[in-house]
Amino acid sequence: MFDFKNKLFRYFLQAVNYSIFMWLIWFLSTSPSYRQLADDEAVLTISFAHAGEIREPCHKRTQKELMKLSPNMRAPMDCTRERSPIIIEVLLDGAPMYTHTAEAPGLFKDSGVDIYHSVKVSAGRHNLAIKMDDSVLKEGFNHSFNQDIDINPAQILLIGFEFGQGFVIK
Is residue 1 predicted with pLDDT exceeding 70? Predict the structure, then answer.
């Protein structure tokens, strides 16, 4: 009925199976080795959230227009909620690295836009130029950044945008 040798043998085989399984997991988690970046590469990341300017200027309602509206809708200014698209161009050493046009999301196209782009670049000295247009009311790009940067191997260079300051390197 109760075979002690059979039970001991099963425990032994179980221990062997678990050992092989654990060794296999350990081996596959350490080998083959994987490197995301070569010895002379770095990462340049552009990441920020920004809301474009209002697409149309506000309109001051006349007294006649106000009287046509119901009393709870009589705001003196009529402002649309729709925002301008964000157009961004990134040049590295004069060559285009990233170009993107982002329309404002949301039901009324009134939300901010999240921009994220990451690219591997060679380490060393580069000229970085960024141009961004966030207003359809103005001609051309209304935010720009142009700077020589030094990127070390395996460095992650983060570029953000802060309202009032413009593009910043972190």
Answer: no
